[in-house]
Every structure is written in C-alpha cells, then in structure tokens.
Automatic annotation (TrEMBL), chain A:
<dbReference type="InterPro" id="IPR035906">
    <property type="entry name" value="MetI-like_sf"/>
</dbReference>
<dbReference type="GO" id="GO:0005886">
    <property type="term" value="C:plasma membrane"/>
</dbReference>
<keyword id="KW-0812">Transmembrane</keyword>
<feature type="transmembrane region" description="Helical">
    <location>
        <begin position="127"/>
        <end position="149"/>
    </location>
</feature>
<feature type="transmembrane region" description="Helical">
    <location>
        <begin position="12"/>
        <end position="32"/>
    </location>
</feature>
<protein>
    <submittedName>
        <fullName>NitT/TauT family transport system permease protein</fullName>
    </submittedName>
</protein>
<feature type="transmembrane region" description="Helical">
    <location>
        <begin position="223"/>
        <end position="246"/>
    </location>
</feature>
<keyword id="KW-1003">Cell membrane</keyword>
<keyword id="KW-1133">Transmembrane helix</keyword>
UniProtKB/TrEMBL annotation, chain B:
<dbReference type="GO" id="GO:0005524">
    <property type="term" value="F:ATP binding"/>
</dbReference>
<dbReference type="GO" id="GO:0016887">
    <property type="term" value="F:ATP hydrolysis activity"/>
</dbReference>
<dbReference type="InterPro" id="IPR050166">
    <property type="entry name" value="ABC_transporter_ATP-bind"/>
</dbReference>
<dbReference type="InterPro" id="IPR003439">
    <property type="entry name" value="ABC_transporter-like_ATP-bd"/>
</dbReference>
<keyword id="KW-0067">ATP-binding</keyword>
<dbReference type="InterPro" id="IPR003593">
    <property type="entry name" value="AAA+_ATPase"/>
</dbReference>
<keyword id="KW-0813">Transport</keyword>
<keyword id="KW-0547">Nucleotide-binding</keyword>
<dbReference type="InterPro" id="IPR027417">
    <property type="entry name" value="P-loop_NTPase"/>
</dbReference>
Length: 257, 265
C-alpha cells in the first residue's frame, strides 16, 4: 500500500481535494446565480431560507424520513421472505422471477400518480411506492446470497441430516448477509427517492420535503426548493453512512467489506 | 464393535451429465468396524463418487450399500457419519469453536450423548489458542484440522475423508496425518480415507484399496501389516518402502491397462 493511502482522514492530503472542488463549485454556483437569477438562487438565499424556519424543514424532513424508512422496512420484509421462498422452491422461482424482472424494468416513479389516485393523499401511496422501489434489489441480492453456500458445506450439513430450516438458519441466511447489505447500500438512498417522488405526485399532501419542493416551486421560491434539496441530500448521505456503519459491525468476518 | 461397518455389494453408478461416464462398476467392498481404509487411484476412478455414495449424498444406480447395518441416509440421520470434504468447508462468520460445535446444533434429536467437550478436543488438536479466531485468520492446515475435529466431535461410527490434505504442503500434511492418527487412536471409528498419495495411504491405513478408471473399479486390496504407531523410523524402513513400491506398481498397471483400453477402443 502506498503511504498516501494510509493517511488519516484528518490529513490535508485526504480532505483538501474535496474542499478545493467544493469551493470551485460554490464559486461557479454564485457566478451562475448572479448571471441567471432564474436558474439558481444565490447560496446565501438558500441558507437564509433554511435559517428563517429550521423547524419547518425538520418537521418535513421527519415526515419524509418516516415514509422512507417505513416503506423500506415493508419492502425489505416482503422481498426477503419472497427471496427465501424463491430460493427454496424451484416452482416459485420460475413463477416469480420473470414478474420481478418486469417489475424492475418498469419505471416505478411512473406509477406514483396512479397510486395517488388509488390511495389518496395519505401515507399509503408513499409507503407503497417506496416499498416497491426497494423491493427488487433486495429480492435479487438476497436470493443470490441465499443460494451462495458452497457445495462442500452443504454436504457436511446433509451428512448430519440437517433439516431445511437448519440449513436456512445456520448457512443460507448468515451467508446471504453480505449480499443483503450490498442491497441495503443501494436501497437506503432509493427509499428517500421513493418517498419524495410520491410526495411530488400527491400535490395535496400535508407535509414532506417533496411537498415543500412542490409548493415552493409553484410559489416561485427557488431558495426554499434548493434548501429542501440540500436537506434531502444530507438525509440520503446520513442513511448511507448508517448502513455502512452497521455493515462494518455485522460483517466483521467478511473480507471484502 | 464387530462386523462390517461399510458394505458395498455390486455398486454401480453412471454419471449422466455429459458423456455417460461409468463412474463405478460392480464395486464389492467390505470394511470391518474400526479399520482405517484408504482408497487410492488416479483421478476419474470414482473414489470420490464411492465416498459420496457411502455418505448418502449420492444414490447408486445398481447394487446395495449398507453403513452400520443400515442405509447411508439412515446412518446420516442417526448422526453416525462424520464427513471431512476436500475443502475444510468452515463457516467464515463463526469462530473455530462455533464451527466445531455446529453439527451438535442441527438434528439435535440424534445427538450422541454425552456430547464431547469440544474445547478439550480442540486443545488436543493444537487449536487451543485459535479457538476464538475465525477461519480466515488460520492457516490452511489449521482449517483442515478444525474440519477433522468437527467430524470427530460427532463421535461417529464411520468417518469419511475426501482427500482432506491434498491442498496442503508436504510438511503441514505430515503433521496433519500424525494428528489424525492420534485422534483416531483415541476416539476410534471406521475410516474411509480417499487420497491420491501413496505415501499417505501406506502411512495411515490398515488396508489400501486400489482403484482404476473407465469404468471405475477396484483392482486390488492391499493389507498394510505394519505396527502402530507409525513412527518416522518406520516410514524410513524397508518394509514401508516395499509397500510403497508395490502400490506404485499396481497403480501403474491400472493406468497402463487403461491406456491400452483407450487405444483399443
């Protein structure tokens, strides 16, 4: 390993490139905002919008975050259970997987308006859309992971007459965890997207950052729109950080982390 | 323990996958209880297939197999078999101790009480310091030792080993053989040991089965009348060498004959 890679995150060589790029982007942003006021609001205005009513953003972030996490949980449980079924029963695999693939290539954001029509402006369409968006990556990764147990290990288990459940519990599920965490890395940020898209489609929603964006843009307040976008970016990053930290703890044994 | 621990009667097996290879043809074999029997032969002679059939992992197409007076599947269900595959087949998320005790956690109904003290057994195998480490932190030899301890921990009547030391270097391999013999001497079991090393077969076994390929068949059964423990002096003795040489000749015969057959067909 080269010495540069061993430096601590506090060393300038580590953070300086990022800081420089951020400063450059910030300057470009300000120049752009100056020349074309309708394209971008000045960063100062965005900051003021945030500072003027932080409670407003906290409240709406909380609504969106709750929708995202709840939808993710629903999608996760459904996808993981289905992955177990699909990896254990060939017939189920043949029936389900083609549908799952079609579901995956369908642009799910396009069904958001239909969900709003069907389920109204409450939390239901947000949870459904988020769950659907999270569903496929978890299903695919988990079902691959559940079937990734090496043949010799299975033979040892068969030689002591382990039941299907015992194989699942001791081999398949723990062995699938690295695959599941890889899916979670994808799906946590996706869950925020799902919640926001559903909010954007349900114009009458009471709260949520998507609603904030919708209302603010209809009232021509770009600073608020961008403040909400920055909060969303922060939320997605924190969720990703959370998964990464949990993964490090759970998968200490796993070499490729 | 008396009588036959493993009995194969006219066992045949055809692998249908690609070329209809006759993996085994008319195998008759009787292994008395408590014996250490090695199976040796060139690759493709069906020795691993035979092991898998005895382990109940594969069904023979013809003939009958009994293990401990019952079918292999029944023997597996009663936890009378200990299997050590070619790769150690350890679970990377469990510690050495966790891996070694895992078989006792499945099919509990048939655990053979009292369960052995796995910590003591691991210490006995020189794995005392590694007990709480994960497989990735161990050397290849240590990993394979864990797999062997795991199998002995079942207190099996029949121990089945499929080239367990083939991936190890010469020195590690010798140490592993020694430890296997020590554990076997203390715990006892009927052993079926698949190998492609003549030295290993002579050193470990009471009986060596020589197999030849196409079709997979037994061409010779050689009893090794050497005292135990098989010390370093014994390994260097002329008697030991004589066994090695005669096995080498038999294996070459099997091989040559095979080449003739191929040329003829």
């Amino acid at each position: 390993m080269s010495p540069a890679r061993r430096r601590s995150p506090l060393h300038p060589a580590y953070w300086a490139p990022l800081v420089v790029l951020l400063v450059v982007l910030g300057v470009l942003w300000q120049v752009g905002a100056d020349r074309m006021p309708y394209l971008l609001p000045p960063l100062g205005d965005v900051w003021s919008a945030l500072k003027a009513d932080p409670g407003y953003f906290v409240h709406n972030s909380w609504v969106t975050l709750r929708e995202a996490i709840a939808g993710l949980l629903i999608g996760f449980v459904a996808a993981f259970l289905l992955a177990i079924l699909v990896s254990e029963v060939t017939l189920a695999r043949r029936a389900v997987m083609p549908i799952a693939v079609v579901l995956n290539v369908t642009p799910l954001v396009a069904i958001a308006p239909a969900l709003v029509v069907a389920f109204g402006f409450g939390p239901a369409p947000k949870l459904i859309l988020t769950a659907l968006i999270c569903f496929f990556p978890i299903l695919i990764n988990a079902s691959v992971g559940l079937r990734s147990v090496p043949a010799p290990v299975l033979q040892v288990f068969r030689s002591v007459h382990a039941s299907r459940w015992e194989v699942l519990r001791h081999l398949r599920i723990p062995g699938a965890l690295p695959y599941v965490f890889a899916a979670l890395q994808i799906v946590f940020p996706l869950s925020v997207i799902g919640a926001v898209v559903a909010e954007l489609s349900a114009a009458g929603s009471a709260a949520g950052l998507g609603t904030v964006i919708q209302i603010a843009s209809s009232m021509n307040r770009p600073a608020t729109v961008w403040a909400a976008i920055f909060v969303l970016a922060l939320m997605g990053s924190l969720l990703l950080l959370l998964v990464t930290v949990v993964e490090r703890r759970v998968l200490r044994w796993h070499g490729s982390r | 323990m008396t009588g036959a621990a493993i009995h194969l009667d006219g066992v045949g097996r055809v692998h249908e996958d690609t070329t209809r290879v006759v993996a085994l043809n008319g195998i008759d074999l009787t292994v008395p209880a408590g014996r250490f029997v090695s199976v040796i032969g060139p690759s493709g002679c069906g020795k691993s297939t035979m092991l898998r059939i005895v382990a109940g992992l594969e069904e023979p197409d013809t003939g009958a197999v009994t293990v401990c007076g019952t079918t292999p599947r029944q023997a597996a269900e009663e936890k009378r078999l200990g299997l050590v595959p070619q790769q150690p087949a350890l679970l990377p998320w469990l510690t050495v101790l966790g891996n070694a005790t895992l078989p006792a956690k499945v099919n509990r109904r048939h655990n053979r009480e009292p369960l052995p003290d796995m910590r003591a057994l691991l210490r006995r195998a020189g794995l005392g310091d590694a007990m709480h480490q994960r497989p990735a932190q161990l050397s290849g030899g240590m990993r394979q030792r864990v797999a062997i301890v795991r199998a002995f921990g079942l207190q099996p009547d029949v121990l089945l080993l499929d080239e367990p030391f083939s991936a190890l270097d010469e020195f590690t391999r010798e140490a592993q053989q020694e430890q296997l013999l020590e554990l076997w001497g203390e715990r006892g079991a009927t052993v079926l040991f698949v190998t492609h090393s003549i030295l290993e077969a002579v050193r470990l076994s009471d009986t060596v089965i020589v197999m030849a390929p196409r079709p997979g068949r037994i061409v010779d059964v050689v009893d090794i009348d050497l005292p135990r423990p098989r010390t370093q002096e014994l390994i260097r003795s002329p008697e030991f060498h004589a066994y090695e040489l005669s096995l080498r000749d038999r294996l070459r015969d099997a091989f040559e004959q095979n080449k003739h057959d191929e040329a003829a067909s």
